[in-house]
Amino acid sequence: MKMEFDPRNAIVKLCMQGMDMEENGKAEEAIALFQQAWNDAANDFEKVIAAYHVARQQTNAGEKLRWYETALQLARIINSDAVNAAFALLYTSIAKCYEDMGDLAKAQENYESASSCSGNPSDKGPFYHGTRADMQVGDLLIAGHNSNYKQGLQMNHIYFTAQVNGAGLAAALAKGNAKERVYIVGPTGAFENDPNVTNKKFPGNPTRSYRTEAPLKITGEVTEWARQKPEDVQKWRERLDNSNGEIIN
């Protein structure tokens, strides 16, 4: 079952609205939106996202545990690169529930499971990189350039994704007025889940975003992807400008 994260998805939108309510101290409104997301979820991928957020809102350790275990069971069924990165987070969350319930043996068992889930991602791609730079097949994209999202920050990694539309958004957000380009790329070394998005607002790495210190080799170019409307790109820019989060570099 192919899973593609889409910010326009109805369940994703409900959860984002719930997180906005949460940040504004409106806990009851937040849980109502997360519960609606669970009720409306049409597939296991959407249910993982909704169950995770419902779990976070529970005050009773037993109920929190039930929802986290539900998310974990669904993630196992999916067995997708989009959610595999969530296993460590879910096992750790389950372990904390057992700690709160006084079951230290179960807690340790789940902490060990969380530890065993760490490691390099297994995603086989294809991979894409969005930019406004004019490059050719065979060229190398390297780390060390300034961030598109934080002024004055020199990036230690080069970023890429397995979602062509995600790369298209990155191209739209890139600085400058040159043509938006989405290149097909191949990592020349080890890579890891992008820690700036993995297990942050959503469980796992649903956008299948990665980073590497090694160069990316351009093997082709894509010319068709779902382009964002100018007003939506502007909203993304404003969201990034107003973000208080630090970029993990």
The counted number of beta strands is 7
CATH fold label of the largest domain: ADP-ribosylation fold
Question: What is the CA-based Rg, rounded?
Answer: 19 Å
Question: What is the first-to-last residue Cα distance?
Answer: 33 Å
**Sheet of most strands:** 4 strands, antiparallel
The name of the CATH architecture of the largest domain is Alpha-Beta Barrel
CATH class descriptor of the largest domain: Alpha Beta
In which order are the strands of the major sheet placed?
1-4-7-2
Could you give me the name of the CATH homologous superfamily of the largest domain?
A: Rifampin ADP-ribosyltransferase domain
Q: Regions with pLDDT < 50 over 5+ consecutive residues?
A: none
Q: How would you classify the helix and strand content by structural class?
A: alpha+beta
Helix/strand order: HHHHHHHEEEHEEEEH
Shape, principal axes of CA atoms? globular
| Relative strand content | 5-15%
Instruction: Indicate the percent of residues in helices.
Output: 40-55%
> How would you state the average pLDDT, rounded?
89
